[in-house]
Amino acid sequence: MRAEGDSDRGARTSLRPRFTGRFRSSGGSSADATEVLDAGVAVAAGLRAPAGSPVAVEALRRLAGLCGADAAGLLLPGRPETWWGPGREDGVALGRRAHGRRLSEDDLLALPLGTDPGPDAPVLVLGGGVPHAAARRIAGFTGDALERARLEEGEAEAEAARLRELRAQISPHFVYNALTTIASFVRSDPARARDLLETFAEFIRHSLAARGDYTPLAGEFRSVEAYLTLARAVLGDRLRVQVRVAPEVLPVPVPVLALQPLVENAVQHGVEKTPDGGLVQVSGEAEGDVCVIAVEDDGPGMNPEHARAVLAGTAEGAGLALVNVDRRLRAVYGAEYGLVIETAPGAGTRIVLRIPRFQPGVVVR
To answer: Which domain holds residue 298?
Structure first.
């Protein structure tokens, strides 16, 4: 079945886009090469769009242009087909018959994608008599783009799972103690109870209900201040706090819940385990293009080997929140960033978080 307005084979030829022949030619001007590269980038981005969407169709139009095809289709398992150009019905039918092997019919070519395509592999269909060498190259490019998109989707799902795990690790013991403390002030000091309840609501809003991947560092510090206010209400004079933040780092976007788990760790392991309590210091400053956040306590500290095991995720029963934060930071910014633990027995613990002040793709939405 031909698309509307497609009366014969000549009509197909007339629809060839303006990149015809460039993908398979070895020469060409630098302007042509730039156009081809730009088209390749646009195609790779468009293939991440939902199947059948206008963005995905436009990606196939540009993909067809790279190899001189007058029609292109993409069939993904469990998703609607995406098609650009004439001959949709014939092309889709051919693609569905491919079952992991290359098929050709008239001027249509179906190419399963992937290094070892099985019966459920994605299939690229090209129309217009595209030479097999060019078709193989464009199929390889398409398969790589889809694989990158799949990996990025997997990383996004992993990031969401890590954030859910961090939220689940917020201490129920702390929540219970905070609410019990607030309740104790309801009759004796109603104004303080109201203030603490509003602080608790702010803490819960940021920690459990924040949307999006990133938040300004100012938002993280507000959550930290809310947590410390509640912790001081619970611990009283046993907890002393100092917070110093340079204004220039407040707009820096950071992953949600990158800072609060570090402060909670300092309170739980540096203050609550010490009979006389202790001091928690939180600081933030810019060192050139790097944002440096430090959370320090004067508690019992730990063996440096144990600290290394905590960040490696091999320490039994401790440090899961720190591991989670460290892995999230390194996944976003690279292996040179993340957490560093400075500690020794009897010397307290200092956790340093380093991230770039500016990172492509890291924005607050």
So the answer is: 169-356
